[in-house]
Every structure is written in C-alpha cells, then in structure tokens.
Amino acid sequence: MLINSIMKIVELGLCVGCCECECEHILFKENQNGFPVPVVDEKCTDCGRCLSQCIYNPENDD
C-alpha cells in the first residue's frame, strides 16, 4: 500500500512531533511517553499536502 501522508514520515522514524502540519485530517496527540505524534483521521484523502509541508521529509529539498 502506498502511503502518501505524514504516516510515511512516522514509519521512517523521522517524525519529531513538531505539530507544524496544517491539515484538518491530522491531529497531534501525546503518546504514552508524553511526546506528540500525528494521528490521521479516516477522512484523509492521501493528497500529500502534509508531506510537502514536513521539514523532515527527505524528498523535500528545502
């Protein structure tokens, strides 16, 4: 399955929980250790907007 959301960054171990993603389908909630992690709701369309905003996405050049 192709993942075109912030969960791709999470699965690569690159997400630091900066909470900078501006998407109505992503909320940041604290995990069991108190760190923010993204939670993508079921209405996500995999548009990729969150990936284009993520500074930790290795595919972003800037």
Describe this structure in words.
With 62 residues, this protein is α+β, with helices and mostly antiparallel strands. It has one domain. Helix content is 16%, strand content 16%. The chain contains two helices and two strands. Strands 1-2 form a two-stranded antiparallel sheet. A hairpin with a 5-residue loop joins strand 1 and strand 2. The protein is globular, with a radius of gyration of 11 Å. The model has no long low-confidence stretch (mean pLDDT 88).
What's the helix and strand layout?
Layout: H1 7-11, E1 26-30, E2 36-40, H2 49-53
Antiparallel strand pairs: 1-2
What oligomeric state is this?
single chain
Residue-averaged pLDDT: 88
Radius of gyration: 11 Å
Shape: globular
Low-confidence stretches: none
Summarize the structure.
This protein has helices at 7-11, 49-53; strands at 26-30, 36-40.
List keywords for this structure.
alpha+beta; globular; two-stranded antiparallel sheet; 62 residues; 2 helices
